[in-house]
Amino acid sequence: MPIKFINVSHIYSPKTPMRFDALKNINLDLDEKKFTALVGKTGSGKSTLINHINGLLHPTEGKVLAFDYVNSSNKKERTKNVKDLRKRIGLVFQFPEYQLFEETVEKDVAFGPRNFGIPQEEAIKQAHEALLQIGLDESFFTRSPFDLSGGEKRKVAIAGILAIHPDVLILDEPTAGLDPKAAEDTMELFKEINKSGVGIIFVTHDMNLVLEYAEEVVVMDEGEVAKQCSPEELFGEDLSKYSLQNPDIYRFALMMKEKGIDLKLDGLNDVNSLAKAIKESKK
Amino acid sequence: MKAIEVKNLTYSYDESKEVLRDFSFSVEEGEYVAIIGHNGSGKSTLVQLLAGLLSGYKGEIKILETLLEKSTLRKIRADIGLVFQNPDNQFVGSTIRDDIAFGLENRQVLPAKMDDIILEYSTKVGMEKFLDSAPENLSGGQKQRVAIAGILAMNPKILILDEATSMLDPKGKKGILDLIKEIRKENPTLTVLSITHDVEEAAGADKVLVLNDGALYLEGTPDEVFSHEEELKKIRLGVPFLRSLINALLEQGIEVPTSIKTEEELRDFLCR
Predict the structure, then answer these.
(1) B38 contacts on A by Cβ (under 8 Å)
(2) Which residues make beta-bridge pairs with A199?
């Protein structure tokens, strides 16, 4: 398990009246190859957690091991060089399109590799590869990133991280604000990237996406890991205790259960399978 | 009375491509109309045209039966309130109070009257306890509430929401939609035009228009529009969950009556 949280706590503004315990004694193993969803209501600690994985935040207590990097509350234990970690774990923030700044798309994407010491020419080459991978062809390379649509801008921003060739890609609400078509394209892209061997950890509020894409789901609640399991295991019970809603099909199955009709939930993954299960129950 | 009447509207930013093509529609006073479509379908351009923020279009725009032209621009802008997608991009005050006051100042409301108005509208959106808070301490949903309060305080006749909930988490989104419902109940002549790509949100409107590639693709009540699942799928728009489940049940040979309008009704029908 290359990503491991050991008794990690994080406190914002300690020793002040504003003190906020964002993470409380977290013990968590994350598989670096899997497609993992991180869910929980606003303020449950999701963003704080992912910022610990690539060393943007240090634990107040405990330590995070990510590949061979040690991110410990104890300064002496911390690995000095954080650059290798940042190369292996790429973090895409929420609304990353706001961080675009270069004159052309290719230069913007090449900024990442160049920061890791790759010469200009090679960096541009890597940028082109990343852009093609993400579905933006040659015609985009020399355009200004500011002339693109919202969905395209976001793709450019994500390509900027892909160009670094990370082993794990962490995404904070990658589909927020995108239209349904762009959201689906983006998630399908991550699925492909995951198949090529890159681990994906994504934060989301959309349980329909969790059901459709994630292999594993981590539920955060009040700074603690409330659950770590497969989506199928999580869904189908009442999730209001975590302030979460079931995906639509499970939500409806639960509504029927309240009226005494117990549908078979195994393998429920879209409206067609729900309709079949309903038909089955009527026999 | 027609709140919005658009006839044969055509617009392009440059010669090469028309963003809106011969688009006509109308909205009655007090109606809640949702316009759905993808990014790039021309939705936001339409909003800017309605508010008189873009010129050089072909066709005709009438707001509350007044033709939009240079001489009527001021009046028409006073009738329209706009709420945009990103709550962070429309905050101008350093506190909630200042932010709501900003619009009033621009409308030259007397300072003596302002406090009452600010209190009234902040209460309406449930933000009266935060009047002296700074925007950075609020959630996205709370910021949108403040934006809506600031707009309503100026007493618009038409409220236009341009993807106003798309950046919010599910709870924030539901809060804003419930708020719009309440406001419409209190003020039944307020016309609401919601530009969105959220089909669940559109399902709550009186009327839905589907824009595709700058032209009108489908129009009707939510029921009518969302019964066209295949056409919507063609342009990769989904249909609301309830509708897609009903369609799937019909395919399984379960005859769901057309009178069913809510998930509860469907559940009760299936659990008979």
Answers:
(1) 179-182
(2) A168
pLDDT one-digit tens code per residue, A121-139: 999 999 999 999 988 999 9
Cα B74 to Cα B94: distance, rounded to the nearest angstrom: 27
Residue A136 burial by CB count (10 A; 0-12/13-18/19+): exposed, middle or buried? buried
Q: Which pTM does this prediction carry?
A: 0.83
For chain A, domain boundaries = 3-230
Helix axes B241-251, B263-270, angle to 10 degrees: 30
| Residues paired with A65 in a beta bridge | A4, A70
Contact B270/A261, CB-based, under 8 Å?
yes
- How confident is the model over B47-95, as pLDDT tens digits? 999 999 999 999 999 999 999 999 999 999 999 999 988 878 777 888 9
Distance CA A26, CA B78 (A): 53
Residues of A within 8 A of B170 (CB-CB) are: 205-206, 245
Q: What is the pLDDT of residue A1?
A: 59
Q: For position B138, what pLDDT does the model report?
A: 82
B169–A contact, CB cutoff 8 A: yes
Copy the structure tokens of residue B257: 């009556």
Residues of chain B with pLDDT below 70 are: none
**CA A185 from chain center: how many Å?**
16
Give percent of chain B above pLDDT 90.
58
Q: For this complex, say whether ipTM is above 0.85.
A: no
CATH of domain A3-230: 3.40.50.300
- Give the span between the Cα atoms of A64 and A27, in whole angstroms: 9
Amino acid code (one letter) for A257: K
Q: Which residues contact B222 (CB under 8 A, 6 or more apart)?
A: B34, B202, B203, B204, B205, B207, B208, B240
CA distances from A263 to A213, A258, A267, B270 (A): 23, 11, 11, 12
**Share above pLDDT 70 across residues of chain A, in percent, rounded to a whole number:** 100
